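Hello, quick one for you while I still have it in my head. I'm working through a protein record and want to make sense of it properly. Would you mind checking whether the C-alpha cells look sensible for this chain? I owe you a coffee for this, so here goes:
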Amino acid sequence: MSSSTVSVHRALLGALGAVAAVPALLVGAAGVASAQPPPPNCTAADLAGVSAGVSAATSVYLFTHPDVNAFFTTLQGRPQDEIRAAVADYAEANPEVKAELQGIRQPLVDFRNRCG
C-alpha cells in the first residue's frame, strides 16, 4: 500500500472518527478488564466485528456514491493538515454525506459508549 493510499485511508477513517476510537476502546477495555469483567459483548473480538462491519458499510457507501469516493481519492499525497481541512470543508458543504457517514460509524460510537 503506497503512502498516498495510506493518507487517503487515514483521512476517511478520520472523517468517520474511527482512528481515535479503536485504540481508545482497546486501551479502555484493557483497563476495565483488570478492575472487573467487561460488560457483555465488549471483547476485542466484538470490537473487531463492529469495526469490520463499519469498514464494509463504508466501502459499499463509497462504491455507491462515486462523487464521495472521488473526493476521498483526491486526497492522496496531500499533507495531513490539508487533508483534515479538506474533509472538514467537504463535510460542511455536504451535510447529508456527513450525516450518512456518521450513521455508518454509529455502531463504533455505540460500542465505545457501552464498553467504555
Q: What stands out?
A: Residues 104 and 110 are 11 Å apart (CA to CA). The chain has a mean pLDDT of 83. Helices lie at 3-16, 18-35, 44-64, 66-73, 80-93, 95-115. Residues 44-64 form the longest helix (21 residues).
